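Final report, closing paragraph on structural work. Over the funding period we assembled a curated collection of sequence-structure pairs, and we close with a single example.
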Amino acid sequence: MLKLCINIDHIATVREARKTIEPDPIIGAKLAIEGGANGITVHLREDRRHINDRDVLLISQHISTLPHILFTLEMAATDEMLSIASKVKPGLVTLVPEKRQELTTEGGLNINAQKQHLAKYLENLHKHSLTVSIFINADKEQIKTAKDIGADFIEVHTGPYAENPNESELNKVKEAIEYAQSIGLKTNAGHGLNYENIKAIAKLNIEQLHIGHSVISRAVMIGIKEAVTEMKKLTDFNFK
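Its predicted structure, as stored:
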């Protein structure tokens, strides 16, 4: 069954805009699960621009009581993140590229450019009994290298398709998934997917979809009426 994993980073983005305590990503994770999410995904960035260490710990602790829910930790391949992942023990570690100046992840990890480092890094993750995915472009050479260095999964970068959802871009994603599976890799997909372009991707033979910004954006819109109604009731005793 295809698993829908909700990335809740941007709940924390709103919180960090004011450096306050709300909205709380942990509550967001619980509500997403109540809504039917099969997993919760967070990206712990080096600069902690949204999700922080406390979020990771508390979400991990909550999900550990829900064996049917997958907790995915997206992270850069650094010593600091290796230490955190080895202690938190997420259900899935997804290695992603990371640049401080980017607004969001701009492309797949270039495995070929750092093959030796990543091979050793995956070896260390596996020593801690962690399952590892690599966020990667729909490129057969990169996919083959992911297999060579010991990845368990790849997550195909769907950004180009999401920005220009046509048959050609869809076929690139499909062919990448089929190739990865043919050499023994499990496959996920994500990035830029929304309520308009999701159906074609969801029909592909993949294990997990990781979707965040679009869901959180829609939640802001379809949930604001109820939030205002609740506040109105607290400020107006004549409100009905």
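The beta strands are 3-7, 39-43, 70-75, 92-95, 132-136, 153-157, 186-190, 208-211. Residues 3-235 form a domain with the TIM Barrel fold (CATH 3.20.20.70). We thank the funder for supporting this effort.
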